[in-house]
Amino acid sequence: MKYTSLILLLACMLVLLGVRVALSETVTYVFLIWNVFLAFVPYYLSNFFVQALPKISFKTTLLFIAWLLFLPNSFYVITDFVHLKERVVIPIWYDAMLLFTATFTSLLLGLSSLINVEMYLQKIVTKQMSYIIIIGCLFLSGFGVYLGRFLRFNSWDVLQQPSVLVIEIYDRCVNPLQHLRTWSVAIVFTFFTACCWLIFKNFKHRSQPTVK
């Protein structure tokens, strides 16, 4: 994803948000700025893998873990549509456009970061194994979206309250039938993001010039 495209998307979102704040005199949806920023973090981290040497090192391992911890933020914004409802002054179609712009930006950031990491993985493992790892990352990301939306955990809670996080995860792993919503969200997000990833890969491949 080129920075010019990112800047245009961010500018579009900020203009829509600025107009909304001015007309409604409220800060509703201003949180989208923070959410999109968090979605930018995994993309920023993934850029280090583009030029990384084809080997596993302590640095690349730490970067991969950090990238994986923040990856759910790229897809979490999709769930912000739960805030969409009729409000005074601002029509619902305008808010839908604002939310879509933020979601589209975050989704592209997440998919771009996946491509960067996938390119690195294919330097150190087979293509088939890289696909398995990516799908595994998407599943963990879907699980992370559940933790964020329904249990209100953040990526940095791994450091701030690890014991609470471990207990919640352990309970859902040991008693899966008692937490069907957890696994439903994780599976649906895995399916959706995997489809988006494959489509994005296809478009990206088609847009590359053919070498003769």
UniProtKB/TrEMBL annotation:
It holds the Pfam family DUF1361. Keywords: Membrane, Transmembrane, Transmembrane helix. The chain crosses the membrane at residues 32-50, 62-84, 96-117, 129-148, 180-200. InterPro entries: DUF1361 (IPR009793). It comes from the Bacteria. The keyword Membrane applies. This is DUF1361 domain-containing protein. It comes from Ferruginibacter yonginensis.
